[in-house]
Design a protein that fits this description.
Blueprint (H helix, E strand, L loop, with lengths): L17 H18 L3 E2 L5 E3 H9 L3 H5 L3 E3 L5 E4 L4 H10 L11 E2 L1 E5 L11 E5 L1
Parallel strand pairs: 1-5
Antiparallel strand pairs: 2-4, 3-4, 6-7
Helix pairs in contact: 2-4
Length: 130
Amino acid sequence: MSSSFQAPKGVSEYLPPRAEVLRTIRDAFAEQARLAGYGYLELAVFEDTQLFKRGVGESTDVVSKEMYTFEDRGGRSITLRPEFTAGVLRAVLEHGLHKQGLPVKVWTTGPAFRAERPQKGRYRQFYQLD
């Protein structure tokens, strides 16, 4: 049975054997981070839009043109994360990790989303290791 559905343009899917390569890279990164004393941080995939406008800068291309932003059922402006820095800083401050000693050493990984024209080497959904 064939399906007429396809992944959206600009989304890079990882199927075997490529998925194993991605997992191997993430595992190697995680091991090096652990050995260097970094703790793993699992971040929200979406955040309040203002976090990115304030943290990344309203005049940047990412904020002005490339964010997937929508209104949730409560009328709040929500954005799929276009990068990790703003979310990492929000989590560190919100949960007081900076009060446990400096420097705060955390690492994270996962998908990020940018609403840009798909082209070779640039995707709307992509993975980051930070």
